[in-house]
Amino acid sequence: MTMGQVPRASGIPAAMADAVQQARAEVARLHAELPRWGLVVWTAGNVSARVVAEPDAGPGPDDLLVIKPSGVTYDELTPESMVVCDLSGDLIDGDRTPSSDTAAHAYVYRAMPHVGGVVHTHSTYATAWAACGEPIPCVLTMMADEFGGPIPVGPFATIGDDSIGRGIVETLRNSRSTAVLMRGHGPFTIGSDAKAAVKSSVMLEEVARTVHTARQLGRPEPIADDAIDSLYDRYQNVYGQRLPQPDVRKEKHK
Ligand SMILES: O=C(CO)[C@@H](O)[C@@H](O)COP(=O)(O)O
Q1: pLDDT in tens, 22-46
Q2: Which end of the chain, C or N, has fewer beta carbons within 10 A?
Q3: How confident is the model over 116-173, as pLDDT tens digits?
Q4: Centroid of ligand 1 to alpha carbon of 18 (angstroms)
Q5: What tens digit of pLDDT does each residue of 63-79 get?
């Protein structure tokens, strides 16, 4: 199937066909990252991406989401097997049942327009913290960098309606964290796009494991708030490769 071909007649608006196809490929590719980084067993995790209906206007209620089909193993996932839903969570393209967490993903997209990707896993260490209902304290510079503070705990909620999504949003709205530990269930992460949400899941599991290990060795100390703010600001705005800026020094000496 070439780029731009929608698999068959569907509810996808023609203007979104190419973007949906690209999202199918990206979401299928990103699902392979979950077993790669040891975040899932069998099918116990899912990734979704928002597809914006009107890019010039930005995220809105007519956006779509692309997510994996429920219960399909990661080695069987392809761009064509991804399913497309509206932000009510209703299937509009695909011949398989959407992930059982689709309602949660859809709720997040409706309530948080800045979110472009959502991931859910049952990664061992993060899920163990969720089982205990204890926030992961910000005792590592890596946590300050990536999450801007502790990892919060969301309420226990059963799958199948908006309660998980509501719990995710109510918890993350008051936190810089892109990860939430849903009590008794497991982690959900958000990001500006699906890749960012997958990265958050990877980094969450790493810090969950490290902080647990540190507690076996002693009493890790929380990092001071001002240091967290400084670390978070640097990592979010300076770290890594940034687009080249005009060399203002040359401008000044002209
Ligand atoms: O936690 C659960 C089910 O309780 C789901 O997140 C997990 O099994 C993944 O389900 P899907 O295969 O995405 O439907």
Answers
A1: 999 999 999 999 999 999 999 999 9
A2: C
A3: 999 999 999 999 999 999 999 999 999 999 999 999 999 999 998 899 999 999 999 9
A4: 28
A5: 999 999 999 999 999 99
- Name the residue of 27, 31, 42, 46 whose CB sits within 8 Å of the most ligand 1 atoms, as the mutation to test its pocket: 46
Identify which of 100, 102, 158, 201 to mutate to test ligand 1's pocket (most ligand atoms within 8 A of the CB).
100
Burial call 38-64: b when 16+ CB within 10 Å, e when fewer: ebbeebebbbbbbbbbeeeeebeeebb
Closest CA to 62 of 1, 106, 6, 121: 106
Q: Tell which one of 30, 40, 43, 91 to mutate to probe ligand 1, the residue whose CB is within 8 A of the most ligand atoms.
A: 43
Q: Rounded to the nearest whole angstrom, what is the distance from the C-alpha of residue 121 to the centroid of ligand 1?
A: 8
Give the span between the Cα atoms of 127 and 153, in whole angstroms.
Answer: 11
Q: Token digits for 127?
A: 């899920």
Q: Domain ranges for the chain, please list them.
A: 16-238
Residue 53 has pLDDT above 70, yes or no: yes
| CATH assignment of 16-238, among 3.40.190.10, 1.10.10.10, 3.40.225.10, 3.90.1150.10 | 3.40.225.10
pLDDT value, residue 69: 98
Indicate if ligand 1 lies below 6 Å from the C-beta of 71: yes
